[in-house]
């Protein structure tokens, strides 16, 4: 049956949609670092290419465990960089959380078109709402960008699939089986075509809804993101190399 295919597309929709309005893409600045915001400072980490570890707090800068000597004006810029990041964090988390909500509603619409019985029974809503609430709690509690970037959204999507897959399989499979047992092979075939029709293009439709809803809010944050790029200009790591926490997409 095509319920498994539908569930896979639901996962792709959720992951793609929730990550569609990425600050880096929209504002033309991105980072190769994972950022963790702690009370004791900002922590930037990546697996390769030095500096692998960058720490900022109260105008102090450390790279790969070595303190960087800073002029007073550079200390001011480091302090302002940290302050700006702390101001941006709740706004970015709110975008991720709202993106999850929007994507989930759109996914429900797609799934309900192919499996109306599951939607009308309330099982689909219950499973989806419970999982979405859990994901949003994790995003709210998180202090690391790793928890709301695209890879994380894909993991969240797989959790949703594990919840809704049995519901979709039971609904679509049961309906098709009943049609076939009643001799309505044409109806069973039409059901398969309906599910396939929902699956085709579903990811693009969900992503488009999230993008349209969040674009103005993402664009509104771009000046603050670009200011971070300006603040890092001229800063160096402990070895004298330019410090590039944010990179232009050009």
UniProtKB/TrEMBL annotation:
Leader peptide range in chain numbering: 1-20
- Keyword field: Signal
| KW Signal (keyword) present | yes
Question: Signal as a keyword?
Answer: yes
- According to UniProt, the name of this protein is DUF2884 family protein
């Amino acid at each position: 049956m095509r319920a498994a295919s539908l569930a896979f597309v639901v996962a792709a929709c959720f992951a793609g949609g929730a990550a569609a309005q990425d600050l880096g893409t929209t504002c033309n600045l991105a980072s190769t670092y994972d950022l963790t915001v702690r009370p004791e400072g900002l922590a930037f980490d990546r697996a390769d290419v030095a500096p692998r570890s960058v720490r900022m707090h109260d105008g102090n800068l450390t790279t790969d465990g070595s303190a960087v000597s800073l002029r007073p004006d550079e200390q001011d810029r480091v302090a302002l960089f940290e302050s700006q990041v702390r101001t941006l964090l709740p706004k970015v988390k709110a975008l991720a959380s709202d993106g999850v909500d929007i994507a989930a509603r759109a996914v429900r619409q797609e799934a309900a078109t192919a499996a109306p019985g599951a939607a009308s029974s309330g099982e689909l809503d219950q499973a989806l709402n419970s999982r979405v609430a859990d994901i949003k709690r994790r995003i709210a509690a998180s202090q690391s960008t790793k928890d709301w970037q695209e890879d994380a959204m894909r993991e969240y999507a797989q959790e949703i699939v594990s919840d809704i897959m049995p519901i979709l399989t039971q609904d679509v499979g049961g309906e098709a089986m009943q049609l076939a047992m009643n001799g309505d092979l044409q109806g069973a075939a039409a059901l398969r075509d309906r599910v396939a029709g929902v699956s085709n293009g579903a990811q693009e439709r969900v992503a488009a809804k999230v993008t349209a809803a969040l674009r103005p809010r993402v664009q509104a944050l771009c000046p603050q993101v670009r200011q971070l790029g300006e603040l890092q200009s001229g800063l160096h790591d402990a070895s004298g190399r330019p410090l590039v926490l944010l990179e232009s997409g050009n």
